[in-house]
Write a structure and sequence with these properties.
single chain; 222 residues; alpha/beta; Rossmann fold; Arc Repressor Mutant, subunit A; 2 domains; five-stranded parallel beta sheet; 8 helices; elongated
Length: 222
């Protein structure tokens, strides 16, 4: 039986990536770029909602879904803000889960499977297609980074950081977001490991322009 997933995500590029990856899992995905569009569908009965809560509209959508369907439809709230209040408010409103951006689509897929009680189907896994990031080609399938046809020798963490920058190009990423995506949620050390990893990246991937956002994190543009 095919599960129906409704997705509200304001960022156009990220919405397209998530829609593609979720569809690759065999789910029927309906995506809404604005809270207003999502509000017009709160009476629908999908198997799960994923809602961007980076503005008040997202929380309004959650409240309206709860009014309409109670706890019969699980909700995953997402936010790029590193604020405890967003997580707490989302959980207080009865969301089944809360995910802080930047997260990888695979992480979201695992959370959806857990909530829906589904197992991974053999051979199905979302893989982002190889893309250019400035002068470099990044191939997630082969875990290869190259320039002018020459591969660059990278550690696993170095590659994962570059893949993260590729996926979230033109978006500011905090050190906390990078740690969560590259080291995982169970990492409890200093966030200076991010700065050390960036230094190694700059030595090996010399032409990549990485902007330091002092007191926050890093930004890589297209």
């Amino acid at each position: 039986m095919i599960s129906h997933v409704y997705l509200h995500e304001q960022d156009n590029a990220f919405r397209e990536v998530l829609t593609y990856c979720l569809a690759q899992e065999g789910w029927e995905v309906v995506a809404f770029p604005t809270g207003y569009q999502a509000l017009s569908h709160v009476a629908d009965r999908p198997d799960l909602w994923i809602i961007d809560t980076d503005d008040e509209q997202g929380f309004k959508v959650i409240r309206e879904i709860k009014k309409e369907a109670g706890n019969t439809i699980p909700i995953i709230a997402t936010s790029e803000r590193e604020r405890v209040i967003n997580r707490v408010l989302g959980l207080e409103l009865g969301c089944a889960d809360f995910v802080v951006k930047a997260f990888l689509p695979q992480e979201l897929i695992l959370r959806i499977r857990r909530i829906l009680g589904e197992k991974k189907q053999h051979g199905q896994e979302c893989q982002t297609k190889g893309q250019m990031l400035q002068d470099y080609f990044i191939d997630p399938l082969r875990r290869v980074v190259s320039i002018n046809g020459e591969n660059i020798d990278l550690t696993s963490k170095e590659f994962e950081l570059l893949a993260l920058f590729m996926q979230y190009r033109d978006m500011a990423l905090s050190r906390e977001q990078i740690i969560r995506s590259v080291w995982g949620e169970n990492y409890f050390g200093s966030d200076r490991v991010v700065d050390d990893l960036i230094r190694r990246i700059r030595k090996k991937v010399k032409h990549l322009k990485v902007e330091t956002l002092y007191g926050f994190g890093y930004l890589v543009t297209s």
